[in-house]
Amino acid sequence: MELRNISTFLRVAATRNFSKAAEQLGYSQSTVTIQIQQLEKELGTQLFERIGKQVSLTGQGEAFIYHANEIMRVTNAAMTFALDDNIPTGSLRIGGVESLCTAILPELLLQFHHVCPQIETVLKTAKTEELIDMVKCNDIDLLFTLDKKVYGSEWVRAVQKEEEIVFVTSSNHSFTDGEKINLQTIIKEPFILTEKGGSYRYELERILASHEIEIRPVLEIGNTETIIHLLEEGMGVSFLPLFSVKKAIKQGRLSQIQTDIPTIQMCSQLLYHKNKWVTPQMETFISIVQDFYKKE
Q1: pLDDT of 86 above 70
Q2: Where are the strands (E) in the chain, listed by range?
Q3: CA-CA distance, 279 to 73, in Å (whole number)?
Q4: Does the pLDDT at position 30 exceed 60?
Q5: Alpha-carbon distance 197 to 187, whole Å?
Q6: Residue 266: which of 292, 296, 240, 228 has the closest Cα?
Q7: Angle in degrees, 0-180, between the axes of helices 105-115 and 280-295, rounded to the nearest 10
Q8: Which of 137, 157, 234, 271 is most exposed by smallest CB count within 10 Å?
């Protein structure tokens, strides 16, 4: 049984697309087709159903994913058995939304680097929908998102935590005297918001729409650190995850605005695809993230 055929099988299983798998592996589509046919012949069963351009796993194909991952895991262990087992090598590809990448990930990556100094870490930022596609195409190993809960039997959820999203402004603003401010009053202030399409901005717009209110920000920008800096300088109001402004609030540079609307929450999640072979570096990073949230 050829290892390259098993590797190709796992890539097709992740992408559900022969041409995408071929592109990612650097093969022609015909080569991928031949490799899958060879594997199916060796196993004596059909692994994929091909109807038109649609590719889906058969029941036997779903069952073989576990064995394929085990074969690749054992093979990798055999190839590296003479190396120091305490120092993993290779790469780790993490995809995250900007707010988590700015506020949470630096500390986690620093801890990870101390434990796995030889791992090449690649970080990609995007919206949740784009990151989900990256995972399915095996462009990233782990998805770290702040959004509504991601459901589906194809996901393994390593971490999940509810996060509060708050209105925030300079500590010198008149809104910070502790009284509750109604939504109509807050919305009259100059707003700095993340770009359209972001999960918590979408939730804010949904709430405003239910009150027949429209928001027109004076500035839209994806970087939350820039928003925080402008707020500290007295430039209006924003709507951000509490974890991203917690430090500035504690230091007295920003203040949370108390409002008359219910608390808005999103969910931090660390996910990976169920068909993904979990590498030692993935296990290490997941453990670091789990420990971080236990202390929160």
Answers
A1: no
A2: 48-51, 54-57, 90-96, 119-125, 142-147, 155-170, 192-193, 219-220, 237-241, 254-257, 264-273
A3: 8
A4: yes
A5: 19
A6: 240
A7: 130
A8: 234
